[in-house]
Amino acid sequence: MTLDLAVLDAYQTMTGAAPEGIWRAPGRINLIGEHTDYNDGFVMPFALPQAAYLAAGRRDDGVIRIVSVDLGEQFETTLGALAPNNDGWHAYLGGVFWALREAGYQVGGADLALASDVPIGAGLSSSAAIECVLVEALNDLYDLGIAPMDRAKLARRTENAYVGAPTGLMDQAASTLCTEGHALFLDCRSLEVEQVPLDLAAHGQAILVVDTLTRHSHADGEYATRRADCEQAARLLGVPALRDVAVDGLAERLASLGDERLVRRARHVVTEDQRVLDACAALRADDLPRLGELMTASHVSMRDDYEITEESVDQAVEVALANGALGARMTGGGFGGCVLALASLDDVDTIAEAVTREFARSGRDAPATFVARPAAGAGRLS
User: Fold this and answer.
1) Please, what is the end-to-end C-alpha distance for the chain in angstroms?
2) Using an 8 Å Cβ cutoff, are 63 and 47 in contact?
3) Where is the site Transition state stabilizer (predicted)?
4) Residue 73, marked binder
5) From 4, 40, 111, 171, the catalytic residue
6) What is the DSSP letter of 365?
7) Are 345 and 204 spatial neighbours (Cβ–Cβ below 8 Å)?
């Protein structure tokens, strides 16, 4: 059963009635630009076919009733009982109601049935997909008229202020704004966007996603620590954000920090911003070997300077490069998750098999692999 039919069936079972609509919001791949979003920098994600699906209908009694198809669980609360917390999967939904009402939008209760095929904890933004699909639904159900970028901001507020994960805007912007066949170049300060064509198959190439099955969480202390390091480095350098530090003369500028940890953190962000700009230019010029070089350099920076990779993702990158990939990098917040390999369509299966063999030799479970294609952002299905 497809997920749209699964949420329809679950909704009808829970309520005895048909929903007012069904919505979808995708997970995302970040092609390049890691931990730059909360530093006012640049990112370039694209949306995945994997997505969260939601069947929804309004209630006039202030009750929020949710069934999770994936977990086989049901949760119920009221609008008046909502308060910031990260207690379970339903916080990502309850937080959306809270964020909308805090922003002054007149939102009532709802019955909701949720299902998702975005892997949880894999660095593919499963939480953003859930937040964004509900923002889309409530925007339509209650005729709120919220612009797309503002919908993304409200979804991010759910994650930051309600769930307590100090993420930037990239995940929610990607889930909301991406278009099929394109990567989204986003300036996280100005919020200007450009849809950059990403038709790798036309050039005989593909993005292979290797899910290492090593799970992470944005709400843990490591992510918050990295963000605090960046904010401290920006203060010491006398700039609003690390985005304002130029690559030219970077070593001399960073030496003034006097703290090697802060030097490494800042160096990653500043050079990663430049890599995003260079990657965007490479895509416009159809220079895929250059894109691959930038992806690999990004991974090295995350591994050595930002220190957010982990043994399984490093191994997957090394094996992919040894078996013909033009470039490879971890994607997502770090400490596990997925690796992207830019490779010839003819080499994709070889790389996937090689990573699986190496994982087996290391005593790891076989990774999940798939070829990613740029999909459409959030919207109403029916």
Assistant:
1) 17
2) no
3) 28
4) no
5) 171
6) P
7) yes
Q: Is 36 annotated as a binding residue?
A: yes
> Any binding-site annotation on 256?
no
- Which residue's structure tokens are 């770090």? 334
Question: Known binder of ligand: residue 121?
Answer: yes
Closest CA to 197 of 220, 214, 181, 176: 181
**How far apart, in whole angstroms, are the C-alpha atoms of residue 379 and residue 191?**
20
Residue 92 labeled ligand binder:
no
d(CA 365, CA 376): 32
346-361 average pLDDT score: 98
Q: Has 35 been labeled as part of a binding site?
A: yes
Round to whole Å and give the CA distance between 216 and 334. Answer: 7
| pLDDT surpasses 50 at 110 | yes
Domain boundaries, given as residue ranges, for the chain: 3-195
Instruction: Report pLDDT digits (tens) over 234-271.
Output: 999 999 999 999 999 999 999 999 999 999 999 999 99
pLDDT value at residue 219? 47
pLDDT tens per residue, range 164-196 = 988 899 999 999 999 999 999 999 999 999 999
Instruction: Note the helical H segments in the chain.
Output: 3-15, 91-102, 126-141, 148-157, 170-177, 221-237, 250-255, 260-284, 288-304, 311-322, 348-361
Per DSSP, what are the bridge partners of residue 32?
44
Is-contact 173 190, C-beta < 8 A? no
Which pTM does this prediction carry?
Answer: 0.94
Q: What is the DSSP letter of 363?
A: T
Work out the burial of residue 190: count CB atoms within 10 Å of its CB; fewer than 13 is exposed, 13-18 middle, 19 or more buried. exposed
Q: How many Cα atoms occupy the beta-carbon half-sphere of 91 within 13 Å?
A: 18
108 carries a ligand binding annotation: no
138: nearest Cα among 3, 5, 20, 17: 20
- Give 16's pLDDT tier (boundaries 50, 70, 90): very high
| 68 labeled part of a ligand binding site | yes
CB 138 within 8 A of CB 151: no
Across the range 12-29, mean pLDDT stands at 98
Rounded Cα–Cα distance for residues 1 and 7 (Å): 10
Residue 303: CB partners within 8 Å, gap ≥ 6?
309, 314
211 is annotated as an active-site residue:
no
Q: What is the pLDDT of residue 217?
A: 60
